[in-house]
């Protein structure tokens, strides 16, 4: 059975770094279930950079070379290439299959490579060595692991130590802080990597230290433990001209204070194994979280926050059975705009400005989310949305977006239980988005589900993308426009307008109101539920004027739920055969009931019109279109009105737009 270490060798050609190995061991129950991470690793920046420009055949051959020091045999190459091209397998699945199928000399070689890789990872046992093992030095490790063959059946620790030493001394711009108090560090003109430890028994960053990155784009890499005084009196070194601060939190309660930092542009947390927090952040706009669970950010004063999430998930996440969300907790912020790039992550964004148990004013008014990745699902929960009015969604990966209230007693350090799988009551109630006015996902190509929008208190305009979207709105007079996918659109008590556009959509006219549903030919077959034929709340079917049909006498009066179809553009007849050429460019309503074959194959006049009739087999009113009813070619069903008897429909149920 393939291990995490072996997946690193197969996909990256190198041994795992200690932080990555620990993180993915936690995510996979010590490698027992690799499936959740294969897509993430095979679409990581390192993998994509390494294989950029290569063909699928070259990628498969490279995996064989990395594992067995040889290219794929013809049979194996053809087998995996066929499955990769068909989509039956991805490159991560293929790597595992190749590993699990290793025999004879191949099995000996990968066993030796794995033993050496494990020894290498274990030998990165100082912070300086861990920090030095970075994108600038990984080729040294690749060269080392590629040199291991069938004869290397006994690990030579001296050989391992030599490679580790070469890596530790390979970066001329690496600066490692010492335990000395009051240390003054001055960077170079290059891109310095400054490495230090906060808290714990081997701390090297102290309050009286001065860290100046100098020129260049510099990074301060911190390993952060908790100590007796970390939270009450955090370490506050003087930090100047360091553009990025990256922390790996290894103990709960760990804190990085930026009270005395200037010039910081990006705050990052990666490969943490415990909940930690950045405090007194100041005017920093960019935040990155990767390959870990929950983290906190406090005191950001920038007007716009840009957050990138990559492989962020709670260790207990199981999308099907346990929707446990990692918490990205922002406190004491003033920003009105939040931009989120989410990749293969499931996280609850706390932007509620709760500090010390006191509820502050929610400041976020605009949110944009770009959903990407390979796992097929991103989940974003949001609290603190009482002033959020505008949402924009882009990208191509399935996204579930939810807003709500985090229950009292929920601990962000433990993640957020969003579905009640841990307890009888979930810690996240989907009751948010009360102020939202617009949702624009028109360029989004993944499947979109929004939870909490039903609590919107005003009028909402939603434009979804080309995926299969699920949208439910609230009490306002809403506009719900679906995209090219098979969407489910549900309204509330207001006078709503539904535009399914393309796809076979399900439209639920829940909650009353004078609703109108827009149609045109050639855009799929929609299912309409809860259509009110008459009464105080009357719904209308609205056809696009100058679409498939050009109505000669009707015009839109811009009143929601109002029947604008002119009587001169409407015919009520006893049978399809009773139609004439005078019914061209009209809506024709038939009395009586008809079988499916009569509606799909019956013949009428040589005319173009919409036909509305009762289907005796389904018990529903159905709408059809044909450009020429004198033959059955090209006939299409436009919609089904579930539970509606077409004999009860009148001119008052038809509209144009």
Automatic annotation (TrEMBL):
SUPFAM superfamilies linked to this entry: beta-Roll
InterPro entries: DUF4214, Hemolysin-typ_Ca-bd_CS, Hemolysn_Ca-bd, PBS_linker_sf, Serralysin-like_metalloprot_C
Protein name, UniProt field: DUF4214 domain-containing protein
Alphabetized PROSITE patterns for the sequence: HEMOLYSIN_CALCIUM
GO molecular function: calcium ion binding
Superkingdom, taxonomy of origin: Bacteria
Species of origin: Devosia pacifica
DUF4214 domain: residues covered: 41-104
Gene3D superfamilies xref list: Phycobilisome linker domain, Serralysin-like metalloprotease, C-terminal
